[in-house]
Amino acid sequence: MKNKIIIIFTTIALIFSSILIINSYKNYKKDFIENLKKNSIDIAKLGSKNIDAEKCKELIKKIGIEPGSYSEVDSSSRYLISKEKIYNIELDSSYQEIVGQLNSIKNLKSEYVLYAYILIPTGNEKYARILVDADLPRRTVKKDLKSFEETKLIAHIGKLYDISNQPTTVSALKKRNVGITDSFIYDREYKSKSIMVFAPIRDENNNYIATLGLDFSDKMINQILHKNIFINIITSILLTVGVIIIIIFSSSFITKPLENITRATKKVKNQQYDFDLPVKRNDDIGILASNFESMAGRIKTYEEKMTNLNNKLKIENEELMITLKSIGDGVISVDVDGQIILMNEVAEELTGWNFEETVNLEHDKILYFLNKDSEREIENPISRVLEIKQKYRMKKNNLLLSRDGSKYLINGTASPIFDSNNSMIGVVFVFKNVTEIEKYKKELEKNEKLESIAHLAGGIAHDFNNYLMGVLGSIDLIKIILKRDYDRDKLESLLDSAEKSARKAKELTKQLLVFSKGGEPSRKPINLEKLLNKIAEDVFGRFKVQTKVEINEHLFNIYADGGQLKQVFRNIFKNSLEATDHNGYVNISAENVMLHESDLIPELKGQYVKILIEDNGKGIKKENLNKVFDPFYTEKQNRNGLGLSIAYSIIARHNGEILIDSQKGKYTKVTIYLPVSGKIKGKYAVNDSKNKYKTKILIVEGNKIVAETLENILINTGCKTVLADTGKKAIKEFNKAFKENRKFDLVIVDYVLKGEEKGVEIFEKLKMVDPEIKGVISSGFMKKSILSNYKEYGFIDKLEKPYKVEDIYNLLEKMF
């Protein structure tokens, strides 16, 4: 491992160094030449200003360099020969000064500048050149230049300089401005390449004198570059060697500890946590090794705990499954997505699904709930809890629809499941099949009711016989009196007694009718204040009970059946009277209240009238409070136990609620809620006046006694009547009167006639003859919705049997 790392790092270092050297040479040479060109132009400009223009002109004049003043140059000669003389310019002071100035310019960049010279134009794009060449070798001068033989020239006037093949030079010299060659120019004489830079020399009047030239040799440039490259190579080699040394040194310091840590990770992977890392250092690797050892120890401890917890959880899960199998309730659990994660055997049986089939299925795909009465689908309790995240108890009368179409009556509760962070993780639904229980309960109630009816029948028969005895006895006595003598007062007394017994019998039958759920309320606006005060006076007036009636000043009317409400309050007031032994207090109050869903009675919502009856009587035991509304339940002797049951039935039919709170030996409170009618302070009173009416009425009644009694009452008011005991006769009499223009003002028709004729159908036929005819429906059985909603069938009022003379009078007064 160590050798591999050394080889890898060495190779990388060598490759890096090579790339560095190559890139360095390319980039350095390119940048160097560009900078040299830029600097050479600056040097040329500066040098041209440093050349003494006057001295230059003086020298040119002395040596006779003028356009056309030179003879042809020998091709083998390097020097110009004047037509007049060979001038020894080395001894000329002007030349020496100019040469000194050129040397100064050359020495500015001596390591780069090969030549510094002055170009003097001679015509035909040829120039004489005054050159500084310190390294020029000794040369032999032929012919008439023998005096200079073996002389090292410090400067010389060279041969005519032909620049016709140098566009850059031509351009610079012709335009007499600064110029530089684009690339290196090869000089055959010196066998080298150089960059040439030119700058004009001008006098103080800016007149052109000559041109300064500088040659930058590529040999010198390359020597400098090679020197720098050599330094870089040496540096790179030293760097590579240093890296290798560092790698070799650090391999034992870094690689070996890492190898130990790697071996330790493999052991942890194989769940082997008992090991010791031989890395005892204070640096990052030492800290890493120490932390890794600690982590391995914690993982070992954690795994041991997890193993113990898993074993414990396995045992608890087995116990839970045993419990779920043994309980009689169905249990279904879902996650937060509503997918089923648990189902016991009872739930499988009731739903018709096996748990294996439901795994990862959404609950609403297998659970369907129906309303017992309408069998319409209702809200899924699990879906409800997933939405509100609160416990939800299903209402009664719900059906669970099984997979095979079976229906089970159930009671159930869905509850959210929360984790330790109070986040909901699912819902559990527990439900019980109460189908058989409800059957048994109904059978038990039926048996208890039959037993109670049997017990009650004796008492009712006894009471009814007593009432009949009063009637029959009075009739017998009347007959005797009529045979013996005629005593009007005595006859009236006996008739009163008979009437009283008959009315009590009527009240008894009415109670039985209401209890049997045959008495739908006949609603009209009721003034509770008058009703409560009247009944309280009737019940408590003759006793020492302290009675207090407090009615809200702006109490709403209620829309109710006044007769049935009288029965309710009379029963409750009598209970309070007997509970206080006729010598306590009874407080009665009524007020307007607005009920909300969050109140104690969630079923009621909106505007209601609240009636509270409170006494300080004997009270009711706590365990008996839930029985007080049961039929036939009573704690009093010689009572039939129908009072509160009838009250409960009546209040329920008025869409109200009745509640009882009591403490044995202290108090009893009865609270009644009734919906308001929306009208304030409406008046309702019975008119006892016996007015006479000139009205023609058709009586359609199948019972002869009832028909004749009603006819006598109406005749006593001045009405004219016609009887018809069948629908056919009624239609015949009505058509006859209509054709003869003796139309009837009113038709009173019984609900059921002979031959199952319906009074509603008969009245509809009469209205087809006379659409303006008024009708009143009459019946002794108030269960039918027609009587409760008579206006929907075209009637303007109704009469409940048995009715009194006052009822007929009130009817006529209201209509005519």
How would you sum up this structure, described in words?
With 816 residues, the protein is an alpha+beta fold. The protein has 6 domains: 45-217, PAS domain (Beta-Lactamase, 2-Layer Sandwich); 285-326; 328-433, Beta-Lactamase; 440-514, Orthogonal Bundle (Helix Hairpins), CATH 1.10.287; 519-680, Heat Shock Protein 90, CATH 3.30.565; 696-815, Rossmann fold, CATH 3.40.50.2300. Helix content is 45%, strand content 21%. It has 19 helices and 27 strands. The strands form 4 sheets. Strands 1, 2, 3, 4, 5, 6, 7 and 8 form an 8-stranded antiparallel beta sheet that branches. Strands 9, 10, 11, 12, 13, 14 and 15 form a 7-stranded antiparallel beta sheet that branches. Helix 1 packs antiparallel against helix 5 (218-269), helix 5 (218-269) packs parallel to helix 6 and helix 12 (528-540) packs parallel to helix 13 (562-579). The longest helix has 52 residues, at 218-269. The radius of gyration is 66 Å and the shape is elongated. Residues 67-91, 134-160 and 678-691 have low confidence and may be disordered.
